[in-house]
Amino acid sequence: MDDTQAIKPKPPRTKRFMLVRYGRMRILGLFEHNEAQIPSVPTLVVIKTEKGMEMGSIVGSIGAYRAGQLKMPDDQLKKYFDDSEIPFTTEPAGKFVRYATPEDINEEKHFQKIAVEETKFCKKLIKEMNLPMKVVDAEHILGGERIVFYFMSDGRVDFRDLVRKLAQEYQTRIEMRQIGARDEAKILGDVESCGQRCCCSRFLKSLKPVNMRMAKLQKATLDPAKISGFCGRLKCCLRYEDETYTELKKRLPPRNTRVNTRLGTGRIVDYQVLAQLVMVELDNGTKTAIPRNEIEIIAPSQPGSAPGSSLPPLLTPPPSTEPADNAENDKFDDQTDTNEPQTQDSDH
Fold this sequence. Notes:
Blueprint: E1 16-22, E2 27-33, E3 44-48, E4 53-58, E5 65-66, E6 69-70, H1 74-83, E7 92-99, H2 102-129, E8 134-140, E9 146-152, H3 160-170, E10 173-178, H4 181-188, H5 199-202, H6 212-217, H7 224-227, H8 242-249, E11 258-261, E12 264-272, E13 277-282, E14 287-291, E15 296-297, E16 343-346
Parallel strand pairs: 2-7, 9-10
Antiparallel strand pairs: 1-2, 1-4, 3-4, 3-7, 5-6, 8-9, 10-16, 11-12, 11-15, 12-13, 13-14
């Protein structure tokens, strides 16, 4: 071997990550692993997080992994979640321990059963101590290192004595985590009026704000009992078509706009967003629905055109002069939970 030939160092080993959904709140995270291949079917895994040993499921389609590595680059992965407004970080959330065994799955089911009893016991203590809080659910971490109690409260609560009693009863670490009304629906949500399980429980990962403006724009009933979901807030599904409705509404002139039509001159009194029709009240008092592309907007200084005149190309609608929604009608506007989450854990 030539002495002048330098020995090339081995290239650093590339870390492999898998995308896993885990925990009672169905959090997404990247976990380091050393597996050569990732199963192409839904698979349960045991992972190590800051809480301890937890059960999760691998996320990704059949072609999402190559040679055990998630094919999507970190920046592209982060952009996907940022665009979807889903909380996510490309920093590793922990390490992959093993694929879940039948023993792991049985143990997880056992902890889910005893979590029901733990919730009942916690509710009993809260009632005895007269604390202004409501326990929603309990999560027993796989391996028994910790029990997390999810609760709701209108403000901050001094539950230090409660934590001490729970730690004394279960001989493990206790964590109290405050959640909002929509998170409660995500945990406990059942079948909604549409016949499907609550969206937040079934597939929604980011609970975005929903407001009354969306219901008004979509001509939905404004009866709170009919547009409110399991959580008592406006239904998340009102947001699904809001972007389309908003974009289509921009193409329509606002109410009270003077227009020329083939039937005469009048003003717009209403519209149908999806059909792109405007309801015009003619000067003779009759009302008729006319397609958007068959009207001519009259400029403020332009006199009314004679009925039956030819229509020029579409003009850009003037800025909307419609009054803002009344505060009384917008009492459901703010759908975000304003309480600052309160957490506390206690080492046994």
